[in-house]
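Researcher: Let's do a round of design. I'm pasting the structure tokens now; please hold your answer until I've finished.
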């Protein structure tokens, strides 16, 4: 993964890994914020 390698070169091994996980978590959060209500509504309807 080139972006992981780039962060490792920029910040060192440990910080590169943490930065990669942080970016991954940030995008996951963003997706949950955008698609969370839609997904929850779908689940709610399917459960009824």
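Researcher: That's everything. Go ahead.
Model: Designed sequence:
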């Amino acid at each position: 993964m080139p972006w992981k390698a780039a962060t490792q070169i920029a910040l060192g091994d440990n910080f590169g890994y943490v930065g990669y996980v942080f970016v991954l978590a940030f995008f996951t959060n963003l997706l949950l914020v955008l698609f969370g209500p839609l997904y929850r509504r779908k689940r709610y309807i399917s459960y009824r």
